[in-house]
Every structure is written in C-alpha cells, then in structure tokens.
UniProtKB/TrEMBL annotation:
InterPro entries, alphabetized: DUF247_pln
Keyword vocabulary terms for this entry: Membrane, Transmembrane, Transmembrane helix
Lineage: Eukaryota, Viridiplantae, Streptophyta, Embryophyta, Tracheophyta
Protein name: UPF0481 protein At3g47200
Source organism of this protein record: Coffea arabica (Arabian coffee)
Superkingdom, natural source: Eukaryota
Pfam families reported for this sequence: DUF247
Chain segments annotated as transmembrane: 395-419
C-alpha cells in the first residue's frame, strides 16, 4: 500500500518536472491547466476542426478531416510532385516543431509530418479563399454555411489548436501561388477580422515572421495598438491595489460613464470624473476568444504583456450583476449580441475566477488609483448621495427645487426684515 502511494507521488513530481522542462525548452503550445479549464471547458475545445496533435483523432471532429484533403487538392492540384515538395520542406523542421508542444507527441515521424502538411495547407487555403472570393467553390460548406466559417475562425485561434507559425511560413513559401502579394500575416489578420471585438492591423515596423509563435500569438501581437504602459507599484495605503467598484456603484459615487470612439478597445480614460470606455461588442465567440488570450498570457510568464488579462480584470470589476451590464449597454459601452444581460455578467464573473487580482505591472493601475481617490472624496460622496436620494425621480427634483425656493424666500425675508429694522 505504501509502495502504491510512493508511485503516485513519483508520478505527480514527474508531471511537474515535465512542465518545468517544457518551459526551459521554449515550448509555446500548451494544454490548458485544469484550474482554467474546469470553469468553462468548452471555451478551450474546438467545435468542428482539430489542428495539431492535442485534439487529433476526436470522433466529433472527424468530419473536417476529409475536407482537409479537399483543400489540399485545390491548393496543390493533382500532381503528386507538389505534395512531395511540401513534405520534403516540412520534414527537416519536424524536431523543431515537436519542441513547440509542451507534451510529448505520440506520433511516428511520418504521421507527424503528414499532420503538419495537411493542417498547414488547409489553413493556408482557407486564408486565401477568405481573401480571394473567386477561389471559393459554390459547394464549399465553409463558405456556404456561415456558422461553419464562424466556428473555423474560433477554432483556429484556440491555444491548444495551433501549428508552429514557421511551419505555415515554410509551406506558404514552398507552394507556388499565382499571387503572393498578400503576405501570410496579412492573410491571417484579415481572416480573423470578423472575430476580433476591436481593431487589428499589422504594426508599422512589421512583424518579423521569426518572432511569431502561432496564429494566437499573431492575434495577440497585432490586436492592440494601445499606448497604455504597465505601471509598477501603484498601490493603495494597505499595500495592495484597491479594485474599483462596479458600474452601478461608480455611477452612484458620482462618476459618469461614457462611450469613447477609439479603435483600440484597451484605451480607457478617466478625466474630471468621467470614465470613458471604448465599445465592446459581445457575441457567442467572445468568451472563448478572451479566455484563450488570457490563458496564453498566463503561460507566457511575462506580466508586462498582460493587456488582455488586465482588460478582463477591469471589466470584471465593472460588471458584477446584470444591472451593471444593462447600464453599460445603455451608455453604448457594451453591444450585447448574446441576449440576456445576465449571460454577460455570469461570463465575466466566471472569467476572472482564475485571475488573482491585478498583475504587478497592471496597465490600468493609474486609472484605478484616480477613480478610487475620486470616489473617496467627501464632497463627491455627498453630491452622489444627493443625486441618488433626491434626484432619481421627477418628484424628487421638484421637491428639491421647491425646498430651495422656500429657503431663498426665507433668506430674502430675513434680509428685508433686517434692513427695515436698521431704517427704524
């Protein structure tokens, strides 16, 4: 019995060592750990297609395997020599590609290379068809049925569903395309443009392909053009950063919520008691999109680039109930395409479960600090209480006006009485 327990402990230690070794080797495609996954497992699981080894062979994803061959044929043609050229190009990169995955891949060399070629060519052809509509076959279900294309956009950005970007680059360079003016990065960003709840563009200085790990990393590097910088040591008097209140409480404390026309949804501003926030469109895929980016940032191990995690933390503070969602929607800060406000409030409440407070380099630290200072000022609290208790209805406003007039008349009467007494 004791031996069995020792074996269990040994296995646990070995699993932990694998994670350490994976990190040291520079792996960048991980399986989501259970603490994140258990809150909403579906957010990390592909709906219709498996890319790479982690979800390969799942019965519910088998329908797209034949479609990969169809795309391979349409991309390369029927000449077997072109297929052989792609295989020959990918084969020398096998060992490097295997090291990108945090877990050992139980595939033979031929199986692994075949998977890289099939999945890579499928992605390239899909990106090309999305850009060049004349390549689309009328019978292609990916473009004939909108829900399939939406699912493909979602599945191809999942953290567990990635190919090393250098594999895609090698295949793209190897395949003789009639028009290669559109680079692979531009094609990918164009493909994901419908999914991003904001603006994405290639950086002015370009993104060297060698610096991109996979498609999710590409999205992360190009989604935000925010000039917000991480702020260190913005703490409250207690030694911990004080979180801001929810949107209803901020409003009651006298802070005005306002939509701001910004291309980058991370560019939040606070000035003169007004919190200005860009509009966030929320649809069915938004939770999966944000969750996978947060997971990616957590595995990066660098909280200086945690812009998405910090943004989700910010929204998680603002949204505690469906009333908060309704209020933000009323101000145009949230565009609700999922239906009930309760769905969105539950989404953010669950999303911040595995985020342990603001990061050490929190992008919104200064805004949090200034918002809390504003809320703690006695005059601001007094005015907020006055508006909440007496200015929340027409009758309340009428009673305040009437009381003010009565006070003014009383004051005038007193002044006239004093002047009359002095004349006597």
């Amino acid at each position: 019995m004791q031996l069995g327990r020792s074996a269990d402990v040994s296995i646990t230690i070995q699993e932990k060592l694998k994670c350490v070794i994976a990190s040291e080797l520079g792996c960048n495609i991980f399986r989501i750990h259970s603490q994140l996954r258990k809150v909403n497992e579906k957010a990390y699981e592909p709906e219709i297609i498996a890319i790479g080894p982690y979800h390969r062979g799942k019965p519910d994803l088998s329908g797209m395997e034949e479609h990969k061959l169809v795309y391979l044929k349409s991309l390369l043609g029927e000449k077997i020599e072109k297929v052989a050229t792609c295989v020959a190009a990918v084969k020398p990169l096998e060992e490097k590609a295997r090291k990108c995955y945090a877990e050992p891949i139980a595939l033979s060399s031929d199986e692994f290379v075949e998977m890289m070629v099939l999945d890579g060519c499928f992605i390239i052809q899909l990106l090309l068809k999305f850009k060049q509509k004349d390549l689309i076959d009328k019978t292609d279900p990916a473009f004939r049925l909108e829900w399939i294309l939406n699912s493909l956009q979602r599945d191809l950005m999942l953290f567990e569903n990635q190919l090393p970007f250098f594999i895609l680059c090698k295949l793209y360079e190897t395949i003789e395309l009639p028009d290669q003016e559109s680079g692979l990065i531009d094609l990918a960003l164009n493909f994901f443009s419908d999914l991003l709840p904001g603006h994405a563009t290639a950086r002015e200085n370009g993104n060297p392909q060698d610096n991109i790990k996979h498609l999710l990393d590409l999205i992360h590097k190009n989604w935000s053009t925010s000039k917000l910088k991480p702020v260190k040591e913005m703490t409250s008097g207690t030694g911990d950063m004080a979180l801001i209140r929810c949107s209803m409480e901020l409003s009651e404390a006298g802070i005005k919520l306002e939509k701001i026309a910004q291309e980058d949804i991370f560019d939040i501003e606070f000035e003169n008691g007004t919190l200005r926030i860009p509009t966030l469109a929320i649809e069915e895929r938004t939770e999966s999109f944000l969750r996978n980016l947060v997971a990616y940032e957590q595995y990066c191990g660098d909280d200086r680039i945690n812009i998405v995690t910090d943004y989700v933390t910010f929204l998680g503070c603002l949204i505690k109930s469906e009333k908060d969602v309704t209020k933000l929607s009323h101000h145009g800060i949230i565009q609700n395409f999922v239906g009930e406000s309760e769905v969105i409030s539950e989404m953010f409440n669950k999303m911040i479960v595995c985020i342990v407070g603001p990061s050490r380099n929190f992008h919104y630290a200064e805004i949090f600090s200034r918002v809390n200072i504003h809320c703690d000022r006695r005059m601001n609290r007094w005015w907020a209480k006055l508006r909440r208790n007496y200015c929340n209805s027409p009758w309340g406003i009428i009673s305040i006006i009437a009381a003010s007039l009565l006070l003014l008349l009383t004051l005038l009467q007193t002044i006239f009485s004093i002047l009359s007494w002095k004349k006597q």
